[in-house]
Amino acid sequence: MTSLWWAISLLPKLGFLYLLYCLLYSILKYTLGKALFSKRKQLKTAGDWAVVTGAASGIGRGFSRELAKDGLNILLVDVNAEGVAEVARNIHEEFKVQTKTFISDLSDIGCYKGFKEAVDGLSSVACLVNNAGTASGMNEQFLDGEKCTFDSIAFVINLNVLGFTCATKAAIDKLCDDAAARRPFLINISSINALIKPRGLPIYSASKSYVKTMSEGLATLLATRGVRVQTYMPCAVATNLAQVAPIWPIIPSPEEYAASALDMLGVEENSCGYFFHDLHYVAFRVLLTARRLYDIWYIMFKGPEDSTKKE
């Protein structure tokens, strides 16, 4: 029993060392790793155009602006015609690049013939940013029959799963065109919810887990064709969808997040894309590990004691 207690006494120390390791790894990844392995500068030689879905606002707008800043022409895709036209105009005036827009609801399977034609009409595509998605009803419990309706479930899945998959399929031929020489990117926006899976968000989290899993499969499939796949899993970003204000440095603006994420392009295939989001995930993993260790301790020591009291 003495040796067992000695082993248990080591757990807090091991937990601290694990936390320290995770922190140091994140720091090195976002400093030395970024300096040595970032592929952001390769985007300009990977093609003439970037295609960004969900580009009228939020993270999509942030990526559109950052990619234009790097000298890429931008095809902006969104259902909000007025919003995407304004973003396209601002980008053209500020960064002196070409812009085009494709107005469509990507949750509608009927739009993808036109979407494919728009992409195929571009000279070459450096990257597709699969950002379009929805969190509609994500804060509503699955068991709430009034708020979590069949229509709201279908909308989330049609856009986050079907839309993501079909947008990729529609653009894949253009991405693969001479890809071995250009090495373009398929950039997919998942969510940290794909990793931590909060129990109150089953539909949204599952849809973002699909994006992560599909991306991993595509990375293997497309590697031989020369297309590189990057998946980002952001935490809270100050967007209209998230309904949170920017709180620097914890909650970045869409532009701040996009700049950080693109700086981390190619450093890690699956990345939070933002240092403080990485720390959020580290904290979650540490707390989850601590909870599991507590459960083990309780089963080993308190469980038998409680059983004895009941008898």
From TrEMBL:
<dbReference type="InterPro" id="IPR036291">
    <property type="entry name" value="NAD(P)-bd_dom_sf"/>
</dbReference>
<dbReference type="GO" id="GO:0005783">
    <property type="term" value="C:endoplasmic reticulum"/>
</dbReference>
<dbReference type="InterPro" id="IPR051019">
    <property type="entry name" value="VLCFA-Steroid_DH"/>
</dbReference>
<comment type="similarity">
    <text>Belongs to the short-chain dehydrogenases/reductases (SDR) family.</text>
</comment>
<protein>
    <recommendedName>
        <fullName>Estradiol 17-beta-dehydrogenase 12</fullName>
    </recommendedName>
</protein>
<keyword id="KW-0812">Transmembrane</keyword>
<dbReference type="InterPro" id="IPR002347">
    <property type="entry name" value="SDR_fam"/>
</dbReference>
<dbReference type="InterPro" id="IPR020904">
    <property type="entry name" value="Sc_DH/Rdtase_CS"/>
</dbReference>
<dbReference type="Pfam" id="PF00106">
    <property type="entry name" value="adh_short"/>
</dbReference>
<feature type="transmembrane region" description="Helical">
    <location>
        <begin position="15"/>
        <end position="32"/>
    </location>
</feature>
<keyword id="KW-0472">Membrane</keyword>
<dbReference type="GO" id="GO:0016491">
    <property type="term" value="F:oxidoreductase activity"/>
</dbReference>
<keyword id="KW-1133">Transmembrane helix</keyword>
<keyword id="KW-0560">Oxidoreductase</keyword>
